[in-house]
Amino acid sequence: xxxxxxxxxxxxxxxxxxxxxxxPVHILxxxxxxxxxxxxxxxxxxxxxxxxACSFCAMICPDSVITVERxxxx
Length: 74
Ligand code: SF4
Ligand code: SF4
Prior knowledge:
Elements: E1 4-8, H1 18-22, E2 28-30, E3 43-45, H2 56-60, E4 66-70
Antiparallel strand pairs: 1-4, 2-3
This protein binds iron/sulfur cluster (SF4) (2 copies).
């Protein structure tokens, strides 16, 4: 079960893939089926249920494209 989720501001992504290599559970990839407003291939999550909310992706992104929401246990 996911420990959190990430929110991607896709139109601000420049498709550099730094975050893709940083994710320890390998759930990030560039969405080659589309381009964003800037003409780049934007980030997408291929398996959101595996997110451990570590925030590594958000920390490495030079453009602050990613926001991490950590789920809190009831
Ligand atoms: S928060 Fe961690 S596990 Fe979730 S997508 Fe980012 S790097 Fe991957
Ligand atoms: S590090 Fe940021 S700009 Fe680069 S692909 Fe990931 S979200 Fe996009």
